Amino acid sequence: MRKEDRNFQGILVFGETRSNKIHSVTYELTGKARNLADVKGCEVSVLLLAESLRDDPSDLFRFGADKVLVVQDPSLSIFNQGIAVNVLKAIIEAENPEILLAPATTIGRTVLPSVAAMLQTGLTADCTGLEIDPDSGLLLQTRPAIGGNVMATIKTPVHRPQMATVRPKTFRIPAPRNRTGTLVYPTLPKETFSSPIQSIHLQRAEGDSGNIQDRDCVVSGGKGLRRPEGFKLIKELAELIDAGVGASRPTVEAKWISYPHQVGLSGKVVAPKIYLAAGISGAVQHLAGMQTAQKIIAINKDPEAPIFRIADVALCGDLYDILPRLIERIRVERCERNG
């Protein structure tokens, strides 16, 4: 829709729920939306879809929302693209947001393109940065391009809403504040909850050990491993400390490990409590995918490795000397602690 067709204002966050609980990425986007709204002087609304929400939606007020819209229906027990598209489109047409943000998850990447096409507006996918242009007031949407080798900043000057999906863990969840807002349960036409798409069953893929973006600790390996078998050592340490296994882009391109483990602009953005990088030099596109980790431990035999510039703990040496000793030290300390 062209901006002159309606009075568009405010920011709408298309929140995500899983198993009828509010997913953490919703809090991330709500916090970022609050920052953007403070610059523009507008309000933040959050839309939640669920069969029967188990969390308290008003908790989102503390993280920046001014209004939370909760749509509940039995048809939302399992994600259905057609129904989600119908609901989001109906809410957009009722609320007229100037900006729409959604997580760059499977759901966000499935729903937003369809809605953007229906509304004839633009969509910037997989953003890693969002700001408000001080001159025009437009949303500046930054995302990796050309295989992650350059960063592109995109504007939507004419059509509304300005739409963007954002990679999870790109922004930190803000500290909660003492805020209140308006809680709304919209009533939508019955046909909104019908779709030619039928969702039958949801099942985790075989061999899927979980999303590394959800882990408190991630152990990653790079080309410094020198051979694909080196990931056995990475996985051994990760299993020992209950960590996710990450990897640099070159190791994935060399087929040493599968793509779901790739960390970086062209992979996943992670923000764990601890990120251990072994044999990773620190290319810009990799650093952008993990630099918000609370503590970064880097192992590299090159004292000039760029990753050492952001590391909290820098271990200069051969990872094949350091990692086995680290693994043994952890095992010994656990045995002593357990008697």
Features:
339 residues, 5-stranded parallel beta sheet, 7 helices, 17 strands, 23% strand, 7-stranded parallel beta sheet, Rossmann fold, 25% helix, single chain, globular, alpha/beta, 2 domains
Unreliable residue stretches: none
What order do the SSEs take from the amino end to the carboxyl end, as H and E? EEEHEEHEHEEEEEEEHEHEHEEH
Overall, the morphology is globular
Strand order, sheet with most strands:
7-11-6-1-4-5-12
Total count of strands: 17
- Give the oligomeric state: single chain
Structure description:
The longest helix has 19 residues, at 319-337. The chain folds into two domains: 3-193, 3-Layer(aba) Sandwich (Rossmann fold); 212-337, Rossmann fold, CATH 3.40.50.1220. With 339 residues, the protein is of the alpha/beta class. The strands form four sheets. The protein has a seven-stranded parallel beta sheet with strand order 7-11-6-1-4-5-12, sandwiched between helices. It contains seven helices and 17 strands.
Short structural summary:
The protein is an alpha/beta fold and 339 residues long. Helices cover 25% and strands 23% of the residues.
List the helices and strands and how they pair.
Blueprint: E1 11-14, E2 17-18, E3 21-22, H1 24-40, E4 44-50, E5 67-72, H2 81-95, E6 99-103, H3 106-119, E7 123-127, E8 129-132, E9 139-145, E10 150-154, E11 162-166, E12 182-184, E13 217-221, H4 231-240, E14 244-247, H5 249-253, E15 274-278, H6 284-287, E16 295-300, E17 313-316, H7 319-337
